[in-house]
Amino acid sequence: MDTSNRQITFTPDLFEPVHRSAEDAEKIRGAPVGFWGDAWRRLKRNRLAVAAGCVIILIIALAFVGPWLTPYTPSEQVLERQYKTPSLSGFWFGTDEFGRSMFDRVWVGTRVSLYIAALVTVMDMCVGMAYGALSGYYGGRVDNVMQRIVEILVGIPILIVAVLTMLILKPGILSLTIAIGLTGWTSSARLIRGQVLRLKEQEFFLASRSLGANTFRLISKHLIPNVFYILIITLMYTVPTAVFFEAFLSFIGLGIQPPAASLGALINDGAAQMRFYPYMLIFPAAVLVTITISFRLLGDGLRDALDPRMRQ
Amino acid sequence: MATVNGEAILSVDDLRISFSTYAGEVQAVRGATFDLRRGETLAIVGESGSGKSVAARSIMRLNPESNTIVRGGEIIFEGEDLLKLSEKRMLDIRGPKIAMVFQDPMTSLDPTMRVGRQIIESLKQHLGMSGRQAAERAAELLELVGIPHAEARLKQYPHQFSGGMRQRVVIAIALACDPQVLIADEPTTALDVTIQAQILELLRELQERLGMSIVLITHDLGVVASTAHRIAVMYGGKIIETGTVREIFYTPQMPYTWGLLASIPLPTADRSQDLIPIPGTPPDATDPPKGCPFAARCPYAMRICEDEVPGYTTFSDEHRAACWLHHQMAPNVERPARITGAK
Amino acid sequence: MLKYTLKRLVNAFVVLFIITTATWFLMQLLPGSPIQNSEKLTPEQEAQVAEQYNLDEPLPVQYALYMSGLLRGDLGDSYQFGGRSVTGIILERLPVSIFLGTQAIIVGLVVGLFLGIVSALKQNSIWDSGAAFLAVLGVSVPDFVLAPLAQYWLGLKLGIFPIAFFESWWHSVLPSLVLATVVAAVIATFTRTEMLEVLGQDYVTLAKAKGLSRLAVVLRHVLRNSMIPLVTIMLPLTAALVTGVLIVETVFSIPGLGEQFVRSIFEKDFPIIMGTTILFSVFFVASYLLQDILYGIIDPRIRVAGNRE
Q1: What's the pLDDT at C277?
Q2: Which chain B residues are within 8 Å of C209, Cβ to Cβ?
Q3: How far does A131 lie from chain B, in Å, by closest CA?
Q4: In chain A, how many domains are there?
Q5: Is A18 exposed, middle or buried (0-12, 13-18, 19+ CB in 10 A)?
Q6: What angle do CA A149, C64, C13 make, to 5 degrees?
Q7: Which Gene Ontology BP terms does the record give (chain A) (predicted)?
Q8: Would you state the pLDDT for residue B243?
Q9: First to last CA, chain B
Q10: How far apart are CA A213 and CA A215, in angstroms?
């Protein structure tokens, strides 16, 4: 490496000055890469996260087309074929005590979980973000009142809300939606508020404000983009929690009612029959666990990609 | 300030340090050579990313263990290569032999521990003092660094101190075991200007009183002028020029040093003389240039500069610089007027 | 600090009051009454039952009676068990649940801290990956999958543990272990993240620069600072435990409060649902309160500022 160790033949042309304009020195090497482009590049390099993303897409696809891949329907009861063990030639996931195809039931049940995932996403993105951003942005008395409301909502265990909703309305997808809708957005609202409060103190925000940007512009151009990525990361963790929660309610008999299926309800049935027909528990449980693991791994990948400071 | 003539207490030779990151290997230090003499202050000057902090931390082996790669070189202290010492032996070097002051006093004290305990910790570890002795010594140390009401202050938490006071506490911690070498990594950068001067004055005073050697890492030549005996200018992971303060300020030999000097405001200089920034940005440490690190920004760059690393040219006992302009075949280049004019 | 605590305390009571009131009125909307639950009754008996449950009074009076009972610790009478007092049932069943929960927290905390600390100190090593894998698995396999599986494999197949009921300490081991997995996984992940954060702080480098041994740096500076935020996950963790206790007790037929709660839902035993709801809420709100106060005690920065924002 060092010049002293190597022979250089000095020729006069080596000492010709290199003429460069002032701009050359300021030239930035490489094309500019935006925040999302950069994050995408980092995410692609994380093989585990990419695999998790693919698994999620696969599960979504199966939830929609899965039941059509077999000649059976999820609710058709044929008692002659009850408790068929899984086989590649017959019922892929076996049948239950009513002779229903577990393969079809599992994917129909997955739809419920995906619906919950979508619901939580919408609640977090819309209500949570708007509430948190407004509360943090306006501060003062508005913030005070809004935070008291959130504090009370957070204080109520979601379990209790769900149980009450289920008892008053009938257990089912509607009451599930209401229960999650009532409380699902509070944690993201608190998170966003905290971030907004912090951003408000930063120079770029003050600069924009002193240049006369209006409230809408400040929120949409400066606050939202800067908190959005945090929201996406948390979403990857709230989604599995919500999916769990639905399955839990169905497990204790408060969620989706038969003959409709959800992963939790299927797991509940399977657990009861586990001694003799373990496949009835294994398949829905495996799908549920795969969904949650994939979301978490993708969440970890997104966190590393979107917030590189959290890595060294 | 006169140069201190004495033996080297610490010699760094051809130090090369890299970090492995997800973006590839970052070559932070690419061959740094300098030595520190007994009782002197050596300033290592460079802009951010030049590798000066990494080099300083390597002396105490404080770079993160998980991803630091020592690519070569040695750091000789008391006849031993610090890079090769066992971690256990290093424990006896850190503190009583070599101590360090960090850049940001707001973050360098443990927020959950009383200031006194943070000083006493070190005393108990190295000097085996009892609790009472250590507490007395800690109070002395706080007084030494100019913190009044030392007894009461010991019982407080860091957040109850101002930035300048915290930096004094950090210095007190560094001095606790009478180190021979103090490494001060940008000790004044995070402080107000008036506080900066106080801290620098304190360091100079302490050096006179305790006779220790100081490595002062800074990007601010203004800080250097009043404090250091000698200067090493670092750029792109290499030391590109070293010399006494006088030599570096009045007869700098390397275009980067010229640029540095031209970009500091001089109180004596004519107001009409503009500050001249150095255009461009420092080299990318993941893909360092193969020739002179400054070639891409150097207004006098020649073809050889881009391909070959220049060796050192010696100008005096102390003064040497790595620049192809001093090769016999190179064209004669005049130093910019502002720098010669400052004489 | 005192003012801050008082403010929090008042707040907690307001939240509890709102929850109780809302729950009570919602309960009145529910179909079903103790009279329907029972077999054919003579009109006299009906009137007697109605009097026992204050059903003959107008709603506001019923509410007032319930609230005043609540203040005295009287949660009314169950629609079952021959009208036993709800407070009595809860007091009988609560210790079992608390025992299970505490045991799970202790095991989970020890295992979780160990895994988290090891993976942070051996970052990017095989230890780290192993612990990370266990943690992801731990949070991703829900209790209601883990409990039947554990019951089947460790109880039935291998015969190591009893599969149901609560007759000895040995009966509590398997349910507690199931509960502890989530706790351990959450704590491990959290501890790792926090420790890595703290390990990168300047004050840790300064502590190393003092010549402290690695162990001393970790024990005195890193752990202390990484454990502070641990207080903030107490609430989600307690929440997870409450639902976990419901499941585990149901699966293992353990006569605790969770099992009672699930059964009451099926049996529409409103006074018990109501009483348990209030208890859960108190538990929740109290852990929130405790979290805030603890946070203030541990972190001197907050203690002086007196406010978390």
Answers
A1: 84
A2: 60, 62, 94-95, 99-100, 174
A3: 33
A4: 1
A5: middle
A6: 35
A7: peptide transport; protein transport; transmembrane transport
A8: 92
A9: 16
A10: 7
Sequential DSSP letters for B142-209: HHHTT-SSHHHHHTS-GGGS-HHHHHHHHHHHHHTT--SEEEEESTTTTS-HHHHHHHHHHHHHHHHH
Which of B296, B304, B311 is facing A4, going by the closest CB pair?
B311
In a domain? residue A248? yes
pLDDT of A91-109, one tens digit each? 677 777 776 777 888 888 8
Closest alpha carbon to B209 in B165, B178, B184 = B178
Q: Which residue of A has its CA nearest to B331?
A: A15
- Single-letter amino acid, residue A38: D
Answer whether A52's CB lies under 8 Å from A301's CB.
yes
Q: Does A267 touch chain C (CB under 8 A)?
A: yes
Task: Give me the mean pLDDT over the B286-312 stretch.
Answer: 86
Select from B52, B59, B53, B51 the least CA-distant residue to B78: B59
B260 conformational bin, left if phi > 0, alpha if psi -120 to 50, beta if neither: alpha
Q: Which of B82, B101, B108, B215 to mutate to test the interface with C (most CBs of C within 10 A)?
A: B108
- A201 by Cβ neighbours in 10 Å (0-12 / 13-18 / 19+) ranks as exposed
Per the CB < 8 A criterion, the answer to whether B233 and B260 are in contact is: yes
Nearest partner of A105 among A265, A251, A220, judged by Cα: A265
Q: Do B159 and C304 touch (CB under 8 A)?
A: yes
> Could you report the per-residue pLDDT of C160-192, keeping only the tens digit for each?
778 777 777 788 888 888 899 988 988 998 898
Cβ–Cβ below 8 Å for C265 and A253: yes
Q: How far is CA B67 from CA A242, A287, B22, B103, C194, in A?
A: 38, 38, 10, 22, 19
Higher pLDDT, A280 or B123: B123
Q: How far is the CA of B223 from the CAs of B9, B220, B259, in angstroms?
A: 23, 5, 17
User: Could you tell me which of B75, B96, B71, B84 has the C-alpha nearest to residue B13?
Assistant: B75
User: What are A11-25's pLDDT values in tens digits?
Assistant: 888 888 776 665 555
Q: Between residues A202 and A122, which one has the greater pLDDT?
A: A122
Q: Which of A146-150, B198-202, B335-339, C290-294 has the lowest mean pLDDT?
A: B335-339
Domain hosting A124: range is 51-70+92-311
Q: How many domains does chain C have?
A: 1
- How large is the ipTM? 0.84
CB A283 within 8 A of CB A102: yes
Give the pLDDT of residue B44: 93
Burial degree of A11 (CB within 10 A; 0-12, 13-18, 19+): exposed
One-character DSSP codes across C189-222: HHHHHHHHHHHTSHHHHHHHHTT--HHHIIIIII
CATH number at residue C214: 1.10.3720.10
Could you tell me the residue range of the domain that residue C189 belongs to?
93-267
Residue pLDDT, tens place only, C50-95? 777 777 778 888 888 888 888 888 888 887 777 788 888 888 888 8
Give me the DSSP letters along C64-116. Answer: HHHHHHHHTT---B-SSGGG-BHHHHHHHHHHHHHHHHHHHHHHHHHHHHHHH
CA A230/CA A22 separation, integer angstroms: 40
The tokens 């005393």 sit on which residue?
Answer: B123
Is some CB atom of chain B closer than 8 A to the CB atom of C220?
yes
| Domain-embedded: residue A20 | no
Amino acid at B133: Q
Mutate to test the interface with A, among C243, C274, C289 (most CBs of A within 10 A): C243
Is A45 a member of any domain? no
**CA separation for the pair B237, B31 (Å, rounded):** 7
C228 found inside a domain: yes
CA distance A208 to A203: 8
Q: Which CATH number fits domain B38-63+89-266+275-326: 3.40.50.300, 3.20.19.10, 3.40.630.30, 1.10.8.60?
A: 3.40.50.300
